[in-house]
Amino acid sequence: MRIVGRRRRTTPSSSRRPRLSSSRRPRVRPLSDLYHEGGVEKAFAEDFVQIPHKGCWATASDHWERTVEEILNSVRDFEGMPRELAVRKAEASAQDVLRYLAQRGLCSFCTT
Question: Does residue 74 fall inside a structural domain?
């Protein structure tokens, strides 16, 4: 006997965080902007582009923005914050994670 129907959701809808529409979402700073800021941000951008992405700025930039978005949409601590502050904190968290991975020649989105 085969049961056909909808799957039950394992989490109540009230516990899920609503995503901001793209028009209301603050802009993630492009990787190139981080590079031009100098200092620690420049070193991060260089490492992230050169080591795991072998100099491909387009791929590295895409993976940077996707990582920040994932962190922003998954960390509950950002819920009560102003959007701009939440994005900046998500960027800082993404830098920490991606710097760790880049120093080992890895990227969370690359398969090789």
Answer: yes
